[in-house]
Amino acid sequence: MTEDRKERQREKYRAADPAEGPLTTDQGVAVDHTDDSLTVGERGPTLMEDFHFREKVTHFDHERIPERVVHARGAGAYGYFEPYESCAEFTRAAFLQDPSVRTPVFVRFSTVQGPRGSADTVRDVRGFATKFYTSEGNYDLVGNNMPVFFIQDGIKFPDFVHALKPEPQNEIPTGASAHDTLWDFVSLQPETMHMMMWLMSDRAIPRSFRMMQGFGVHTFRFVDAQGHGTFVKFHWKPKLGVHSLVWDEAQECAGRDPDFNRRDLWQAIEAGQYPEYELGVQLVPEEDEFNFDFDLLDATKIIPEEQVPVRPIGHMVLDRNPDNFFAETEQVAFHTGNVVPGIDFTNDPLLQARNFSYLDTQLIRLGGPNFSQIPVNQPVAPARTNHRDGYHQTMIHKGTSYSPNSLGGGCPALAGADGYAFSHYAERVEGHKIRKRSESFKDFYSQAALFWNSMTDWEQRHIVEAFQFELGKVDAVHVRERTVEQLAHVDYDLASQVAQGIGVAMPEPGANNHKPQASPALSLDNLHGDGS
Ligand code: HEM
User: Fold this and answer.
1) Whole-prediction pTM value?
2) Ligand 1, atom 36, residue with closest C-alpha
3) Average pLDDT over residues 471-480
4) For residue 299, how far is its CA from the centre of ligand 1 (angstroms)?
């Protein structure tokens, strides 16, 4: 049982109880005065030798670390995960084998665009990141509350985020997600269309973190004990159902209580109303990889549930608030590359980029290579590495630190071939080095249309109003027009309602074609035909 191992580990790191003794310096020296600095006489200068003053102010001066480059604002909670039954049939992941084993988790929910101090209830994607402290090491499922993503390849992520963030000259966004640069990017990169439909829907203003879904987004791979792979998409489903705010409520909350979502999470847990989510998987046998009219490696596409139903495999309960926001919620480091035996990657180019990006950013955000020693990031499985030294090293390693090593005295042995160690899925790959994806990546509109057509009347109305509100704030007329042209590929009626609301002309009705585009809106004609 791993049930209390994370709690026991955290206990070791809790600071001394302030009620148990006097105030001290960092060195443990008792202090009897903390309001007046040491000066020469009553009116003289402060003395350098006042080590308590210097330590106090110096520490304060260094309290801030960089916020996350995206997903800066968030709220976290601890809890546990339990599988409903053994999943040995398709994965050997230890935490998915035995319903009697509880695996501790830490979850961080977040918004994407705003800085740490921004409001909760903005129109935005929500992060839904889960760290499973499994007996075979940490597994991070770093997902969002929407099942698709804006772009297909992580090489575009810096461009996308630069367009999404506030204007560089004055750091003023003209709305949560509404400003010229975002819509400029979106209208020039039609692969964003499916995700933009989700973003303009009520999913982008969840009522509560307790009432929103989570998705791993990418196609991952389960691997069983024999090394056999199965493609898998992950889904979290909230036990309370999916509920959203309406736009007026969202705006009012943002004004009256910018902490609306995180306060709700905190208070629910304090009140014993523990948020609960069911984990489901869509499984696709390896041999069915090419049986879809989209590519499983394309993160702008869902696998429709009519084609592959979601199979519930377990549930997660969040039952403890963190003790300290900075130590835990701010310093937690999720990484798509943190996988355990039984869970592996696919060649989704967005996922591959993420596998580089998270560790890279955390090396600077968390000050060097030892951040996995921070309590919230520590695995409950023992970590025995040959990594040494570096900033913020807190371990006292003994002995040597190299391999192979005939002298012993510290270097851990390699795991035997008993199936315990992680071994990368032996996928066969060959090909030329090219910058090109399969043809179906260019079908930007079919699933956007599927999403639109699956909405009720009132949901469609909300989407139209959201487009009108957000695009109505865009100053550049050609950007408005080009976005409407893109929408016409999704649904002509949608595009015309939006066009009317924001005072731009409609494209030709024939443009309502959401079939794969050989050369989508990026032809020069489309780029410059708007007078830009
Ligand atoms: C942070 C999800 C795409 C880079 C996050 C977080 C989530 C997330 C949930 C916040 C983690 C936390 O709470 O600490 C996703 C999803 C994506 C995606 C679901 C697409 C399916 C990308 C891509 C890149 C990227 C393509 C880069 C190429 C980052 C970075 C952070 C971040 C740098 C900040 C991490 C940190 O400072 O700890 N992402 N992301 N993400 N993401 Fe992504």
Assistant:
1) 0.94
2) 68
3) 93
4) 14
Q: 452: buried, middle or exposed (CB in 10 Å: 19+, 13-18, 0-12)?
A: buried
**The amino acid at 197:** M
- What Rg, from alpha-carbon coordinates, does the chain have? 26
Please name every residue paired with 83 in a beta bridge, in sequence order, or none if there are none.
314
Secondary structure, 3-state, 252-286: HHHHHCCCHHHHHHHHHHHCCCCCEEEEEEEEEEH
Nearest CA residue ID for atom 16, ligand 1: 143
Hey, what amino acid is at 124? D
In whole angstroms, give the CA distance from residue 468 to residue 463: 9
| Ligand 1 midpoint to CA 110 (Å) | 10
Pairing of strands 220-223, 137-144: unpaired
Instruction: Render pLDDT for 110-144 as a digit per residue (tens, 0 to 9).
Output: 999 999 999 999 999 999 999 999 999 999 999 99
Burial 109-138 (b: 16+ CB within 10 A, else e): bbbbbbeeebbbbbbbbbbbbbbbbbbbbb
Helix, strand, or coil (residue 379): coil
Residue among 238, 195, 196, 199 nearest 217 (CA): 195
Tokens 């829907």 — which residue? 201
* CA nearest neighbour of 127 among 141, 111, 103: 111
**Cβ–ligand 1 contact at 74 (below 6 Å):** yes
Cα gap 25→38, rounded to integer Å: 15
pLDDT band at 410 (very low <50, low <70, confident <90, very high): confident
Nearest CA to ligand 1 atom 29: 358
Burial of 106 (0-12, 13-18, 19+ CB in 10 A): buried
| Ligand 1 proximity of 376 Cβ (cutoff 6 Å) | no
**Whole-angstrom Cα distance, residue 449 to residue 177?**
22
**Which percentage of the chain shows pLDDT scores above 90?**
86
With contact defined as beta carbons under 8 Å apart, do 260 and 154 qualify?
A: no
CA atoms in the 13 A half-sphere facing the CB of 179: 19
What single-letter amino acid sits at 254? Answer: A
Mean pLDDT of all residues in 49-53: 98
- 3-state DSSP of 443-512: CCCHHHHHHHHCCCHHHHHHHHHHHHHHHCCCCCHHHHHHHHHHHHHHCHHHHHHHHHHHCCCCCCHHHC
Kindly list the catalytic residues.
71, 144
SS3 228: coil
